[in-house]
Amino acid sequence: MKTIKILIIVLNLFVGGFMIYGGIGKFTKPIPAPNSIIEQVQKGEEVAPSTEVLMIKNYIFGMKQTNYFWQFLGFAELLAGLLLFSQVLARIGAIIALPLTINIFLFHLFLESEELGELGLTFALFAANIALIGFTYKIWKQLLYDKQALKLAS
Questions:
Q1: Which N-terminal stretch is annotated as signal sequence (predicted)?
Q2: What pLDDT is recorded for position 13?
Q3: What is the sign of the dihedral through the CA atoms of 119, 125, 129 and 135?
Q4: pLDDT (0 to 100) of residue 115
Q5: Residues 6+ apart with CB under 8 A from 133
Q6: Residue 44 domain-assigned?
Q7: Cα separations in angstroms, 130 against 32, 113, 134, 137
Q8: pLDDT for the residue numbered 62
Q9: Would you say 147 and 91 are in contact if contact means Cβ atoms under 8 Å apart?
């Protein structure tokens, strides 16, 4: 039992650390103008060295040019990371982090699948998040499956 508690703390710190690091990264670089890639193409400048890199740039640029989504994503990552670090509110932090870690893993799976190191790391991040939720399944089970509601429906 003590080993599992230590493992949960380590996983909270692992996932939380990545969330905080990624969240801070969303606020450190200036957001490009909405038409910056279009201007690069019109000037004949190279936007990306390959189609794969262009797909990645377009995906991230699309989130940035909304003028809110990139910052919202950073805020959600920071929130999840801080909740996971707190240990007291880590369960809700793991739930908030789940769609973020799924997206991070799928981004690397479909857009950077040749980067095996990053793919492995993002899979470990996603698996750790799933494990954190799984360790507390007995607590979440009541929210997902309510026997009382089923009796009322019959």
A1: none
A2: 96
A3: positive
A4: 87
A5: 94, 95, 98, 140
A6: no
A7: 34, 21, 6, 10
A8: 77
A9: no
Instruction: Domain of residue 111: give its range.
Output: 2-31+67-153
Domain count, the chain: 1
Higher local confidence (pLDDT), 66 or 120: 120
Look at residue 123 and tell me if it is in a domain: yes
Q: Is residue 61 part of a domain?
A: no
Give me the helices (H) in 29-68, please.
36-42, 51-65
How many CA atoms lie within 13 Å of 18's alpha carbon, on the beta-carbon side?
21
User: Please, what sign has the CA dihedral across residues 99, 7, 81, 57?
Assistant: negative
34 has pLDDT over 80: no
Average pLDDT of the chain? Answer: 87
The single residue listed with the structure tokens 């989504």 is: 69
Separation of alpha carbons 154 and 151, rounded Å: 5
Q: Which amino acid is at 92?
A: I
- Rg for the chain (alpha carbons), in Å? 19
Residue type, 142: Q
